[in-house]
Structure formats: C-alpha cells, structure tokens
Amino acid sequence: MTEALTKGARTRAKLVAAAASLMQRQGYHATGLAEIVEHSGAPRGSLYFYFPGGKEELARAALAEAGAEWRARIEAAVADAPDLGAAAEAVCRLLANDLAASDFQHGCPVAAVALEAAGSSEPVRQIIEAHYAEWEHAIVELAVARAGLDRDAARPLATFVLASIEGALLLAKVHRSREPLLRVGAMLRGLAAMAPDAPARASKRRARRDR
User: Fold this and answer.
1) What superfamily would CATH give domain 59-210?
2) C-beta of residue 202 within 8 angstroms of C-beta of residue 149
3) I want to staple 147 with a disulfide (CB 3.0 to 4.6 A). Which of 84, 138, 165, 174 is the partner?
4) What is the pTM for the complete model shown?
C-alpha cells in the first residue's frame, strides 16, 4: 500500500514538474497535455487520474509548486544580504545566471502564463496573483527588516522593485543577455544607497503617529 502511494506520488510529481517546465518556456496555450505526458515519462492515462480537472487543474498545481520553489531560492539568495539594495542586486544576479544557464529559455515561472492565460482562466489567474502577492510581501518584509521602512512606505517600493525585476527578466530573454538584469540590480542597489536615512525617517513617522 505504501509502495503504491509512493509510486503514485512520484508519477504526480513528474507530471507537475513537466507541466511547470514546459509552461515556463512556452506558455499555457502552446503546452499540450500529450506533450506534458511525453515530457514527464508518466504512464499514459495517468494525467486524468491525478488531475481529473484536466489541463487547468494541472496548470494550477504546476504554477503553485514552481512559484514556491522560485521564492525559496530567492529567499536563500538574500539571506546574507546586509541591506535591501544588496538583496535586490543578489536576486537580479541569481536570475541572470539562471536565465543564461537555461540558454535564455526560463525566467519567472508564471510570467509566460500570466501574459496569455490570466484573462481566460480565473483559477489560473488566482494562482498567478498569489505568486506575485507573496513575492511582493517578501520584499515588504525585507524593506521593513533591513531598510527600517514602515509597511506603508514599503508597499509601493516593493511594487517598484518587483516590476523592475520582472521587466528586466523579459528584456534579458529578448536580448539573450544577462545585462538587463545586472543593470537593474545595480540601479536598485544604487537607489537604496541614496536613502541612508530611511530608518530615521520611519522612526519620525512612527513618533508622529504615536503623539
């Protein structure tokens, strides 16, 4: 019984990983179910057993898992960064190296699907929205912890940082070059360095609110 469950879990994981990889490279609509099964090496007929909702259900599972893995790698990359600027630059460097290693095929695990499927599938859109919201929240927490900003000030900054990195990823893929990401990383670090008194300003804002 345990062996059968373990084998089933492995089959399901293969389908999810194959779907995530293919959709990351070529998007939602260009990725067919037969291609996913072939790419995964899973038994034919297993897809609807594990994902009775078909492609949309599989896509949700694949995007959720790929997004979680992506965020975990980013969190590891910024763990030792001394400040927000260094963290942003470390993320851009990591993504630039990953993109080059994939011959500029991979990028954000949800971006290709977001561009084409977010408007046609509400369940898929919700998974993509959750991915970006969690990433933006992580940037807010980083800004609070390492730049001394309060959350009200950190939220628009997080949106700006996220949009900058996502845009740089797109440009890097189009130009087949690491440079857009490396330049944006350097710019974000420079912008952060231009506000050395951010913790002091945040402290003053809190003091005014407490009066």
Assistant:
1) Tetracycline Repressor, domain 2 (1.10.357.10)
2) yes
3) 84
4) 0.82
